[in-house]
# Entry
Amino acid sequence: MHALVTKLARIFAIVGGLVLSTLIVLTCLSIVGRSLNSVLHADAIQALVPGVANWLIAAGVGPINGDFELVEAGMAFVIFAFLPLCQLHGAHASVDIFTDRLPLRINRALRLVVEVIFAVVLILIAVQLFSGMESKRASGQTTLLIQYPVWWGYAFSVPGAVMAALVAVHIALSRCIEVTTGRIVLPAEMESDH
# Structure
């Protein structure tokens, strides 16, 4: 079971990385286009090569229409795509100043409590995200510039949120087995140093 969960979390992270890379390229192209458009509208360029400048402007040299809307929806997806792997490896920020000195048994119990809280919160987030998606779909709301339905951004994020919740439940159940039996269930490399 753990191997399947790990594989799925990695697939989500890879897809998230590809989408993030695409968003970076999109943003860079939009910034370059916006800068070139400003240069092409400059009085000096219009005086020197008005035909070329106007041809490039007419050809569409400028910012990518709706880039902010695409980045906004894409980043939501990216965050939820990386969350399962982050949850799987316990890569959330933590402060262990006091707990490092506690006995192993107490640390295991604290880790179990934290993982159960994470599981509950991530389940709640997934449920609320799905509910928000349904609400946006029912309202028919669209984005301002490119007019795509707002619920699409939610829909792309829901699978990552559900996967993060499933990973959190898997980790919480594994930690529960560790606390009750005293044996190690999850691999040691899953815990990151904070």
Q: What stands out?
A: The radius of gyration is 24 Å.
